[in-house]
Amino acid sequence: MYQRKADGLNTYITYGILPFAEIMFRYTHELGAKVDIDSRYFPDRMLSLRVRIINEKKLIPSIVVGLHDISSVIAETSKAASFQVANYIVISKSVNFKFGNIDITTGHTFDISNHISKDLNGFFGGLKVNLKSINFLDFNFEYDTFYYNLGLNFRPIKPINLMIGIWNLNKPTFSFNYLF
């Protein structure tokens, strides 16, 4: 598995182009690394697409298919830079209880482009718990094909989402999202 040399700054923008489809652009820069032709370091960029093919219903989970790093499928790219290449299918179901709800998600990555992913490979899944008494806070547990991660999502006001977590159960992580 690929090991990052430094902490990174990930920047994402996601746009729902249709009620059932979204595109996402990610730009990742390793902190302290200088863009340099000699070392061949340049920040990683990726365009992704995901499409919901089945809507969740009372007894039916939603099903989503997605493609991370579209350029790896539609054009010949460097296999050395295929850190986040992933083609995947996800099944999700929300279950309501008296105290709140639990979202259960599982999925699997697969290869349609002969670019073996270095970060996403195999089965993954997670649980998100939201309590009615504190509905502005979600508790998250996930397995991302390599690591187990814990997190809290906090929504102090409508467009703001803050996440604090523990990646691989030993490294702190944080994200800030503004939801349009």
Cα(first) to Cα(last) distance is 35 Å
Secondary structure tally: strands: 11
Strand content: over 45%
* Class derived from helix and strand content: mainly beta
General form: globular
N-to-C SSE string, H for helix and E for strand: EEEEHEEEEEEE
| Strand line-up of the largest beta sheet | 1-2-3-4-5-6-7-8-9-10-11
Keywords summarizing the entry:
180 residues; mainly beta; 11-stranded antiparallel beta sheet; 1 helix; 11 strands; 56% strand; globular
Q: Any overview of this molecule?
A:
There is one protein chain. The chain has 180 residues and is mainly beta. Helix content is 2%, strand content 56%. The chain has an 11-stranded antiparallel sheet with strand order 1-2-3-4-5-6-7-8-9-10-11, with no helix packed on it. A hairpin with a 5-residue loop joins β7 (123-131) and β8 (137-143). The longest helix is centred in the middle third of the chain and has 4 residues, at 71-74. 9% of the residues are buried.
Short description:
The protein is an all-beta fold.
Itemize the secondary structure elements and their pairings:
Blueprint lengths: L7 E11 L2 E10 L13 E11 L7 E7 L2 H4 L11 E12 L2 E11 L12 E9 L5 E7 L4 E7 L5 E8 L3 E8 L2
Antiparallel strand pairs: 1-2, 2-3, 3-4, 4-5, 5-6, 6-7, 7-8, 8-9, 9-10, 10-11
